[in-house]
Amino acid sequence: MSASDPLLQFEKHIKHAKKILCVAGAGLSASSGIPTFQSMKGTWRGFTSLDLATPEAFHDNPSLVWIFYSARRYTAMKAKPNNGHFALAELSKRLKDANKDILIVSQNVDGLLKRAGLPSETEVELHGSLFDYRCTEFHCSFTGRNDKSLFLTPILREVVPREAPKLKPCSTRSDLIGKQSVKRLKVNREGEYKTSTLLDDLTNSSDFEPLPQIDVKEGLPLCPKCQGLLRPGVVWYGESLPLCQMDKVDQFISTGGKVDLVFVIGTSGKVWPAMGYVERVKKSGGHVAIFNTDIQNIDDIRNDKHTWGFQGDAVELLPKVLQPIIGIQYKPRDYLRR
């Protein structure tokens, strides 16, 4: 391995780094069986994430949205942390033991980094967690954290599909936008006309086993303080990222010395806020290491003295490149039970 080898250069830099920021995206958990719900990639039971992961969808059909998120909770609970999760958890512990600083900003909601042993104080769950929830009533501030129950109500246990969510090719974007805006008149059992949306029509699409409409007060998660409807503790499309989490990242970057190195893992690093973090670190003289199956402008990155691009699965890459710090015995003894 020559002195100009990118891996050797990276290993030398990380050994001397005193402050590291990691931005982890969906690619980190893909090998654990966690699907990525992106509007341009596919659908779940005929729905894209834009159909279900919005405040409007929850307002129109909380039953369907809770079934969707309960299925995702189930999938995440059945998934196992992979070697990439364990490598980051061990890196965090080793750096803390050496009085160095690290913060991992996770864009994932699956909780797998915690299960791998990552200390909670070193993680920012920027998009929330499938295992958190909060009350929707304006006057109530109740929140639940890290609830690892497979299902939050008996009825959800009965009706939620157990199979792992499968992505199917979706229509073109213009088709989807057109369908979402369609409103139709339907006749109810009393012979009255009512307006229905695409969510109503597809809830019991003939392409899938019918999903029931769960009564809010009888089968959906309710607040133990005020009996209001709970909602998943995740950030939906159209919602702002949590200010407290953003402040934690900003404080980490701006205080206690400059960030020497930022990891971009399982994401392109070209979207906000990851892009903003990368640019801030580079402007202050820090280096960037990208770990992703698809790295855009890889040739330009290879010619950039301040950026490393490691193309491939983070599950395989992270244990290898972090070996000088975490060693080869980086997984806990009980890793099979996590």
Automatic annotation (TrEMBL):
Gene3D superfamilies recorded: SIR2/SIRT2 'Small Domain, TPP-binding domain
Domain Deacetylase sirtuin-type, chain residue ranges per copy: 1-329
Keyword tags: Metal-binding, NAD, Repressor, Transferase, Zinc
GO MF term list: histone deacetylase activity, NAD-dependent; metal ion binding; NAD+ binding
Keyword Lipoprotein: no
UniProt xrefs under InterPro entries: DHS-like_NAD/FAD-binding_dom, NAD-dep_sirtuin_deacylases, Sirtuin, Sirtuin_cat_small_dom_sf, Ssirtuin_cat_dom
Sites where the protein binds Zn(2+): 135, 140, 223, 226
Gene Ontology cellular-component terms listed: nucleus
Cited Pfam families: SIR2
Positions annotated as active site in the UniProt record: 127 (proton acceptor)
Top-level taxon in the UniProt lineage: Eukaryota
Record field: transmembrane: none
Protein name stated in the entry: HBL004Wp
Annotated organism of origin: Eremothecium sinecaudum
